[in-house]
Amino acid sequence: MNPDKLFDYLDGKLSPEERAALEERFMSEPELRKELAVARQIHAQIGDSREIVGFAGPTLEQRGAVLARRVAVVFTVLVFANVVFGIYAIAFMKKKERAKVSAEQNRSDLTESLARTAAVALPTPTLELEEIKFTAPIAEQNQLANAIVGEAKAVGGSAAKGLTDQSGVLLFAEIPTPRLKEFRDGMRKLGGNVPVPPAQNVSGEKNILQIRITSGVQQ
Fold first, then answer.
1. Nearest to 211, CA basis, from 152, 154, 137, 153
2. What is the model's pLDDT at position 134?
3. Is 157 a domain residue?
4. Is residue 184 part of a domain?
5. Angle value at C-alpha 180, between 176 and 184, nearest 5 degrees
């Protein structure tokens, strides 16, 4: 706001209508209240020009000099406030940017950790794995895959879906060695083609089996 109007308000030189309108703005505009506080301090320090002994009132030159000083002080205060706010805004944005970079780094680290855990939990399939094959229509493959996962859990093991595409569904099951026969029998009941396993595959605490579901249609 024009500093003249603030000083006229403090000097009581505004009309009742102007004074009422300005006071309503003071109530709703925090920045304008700050300007009024600065103007009030300046007004109190400078004092009324009528304190000059021997003069009935300030001359035009004196009033102009006082007004110029007031404007200069208000301008300086406002510039300083803007500079302080700018410094705070820059610091806040840098802090926010650092927090964003840190969050993205944490997310990336978590993704890599999960990928490593998945690789350890479910080894990459090889040709040496025992493979059980199923043939089922595409619409029924997901339901069959869920039934296979259920059979693996029923014998104390686990199973997870691997690759799923238009050619079929690939699963991997980790079955306790003592219950391999029970799991294979369950696969036969579901309609799977279970090969005769090599003797060396029954060693160790658990065995990994590969299960493939296809539609039986040549692509």
1. 152
2. 95
3. yes
4. yes
5. 140
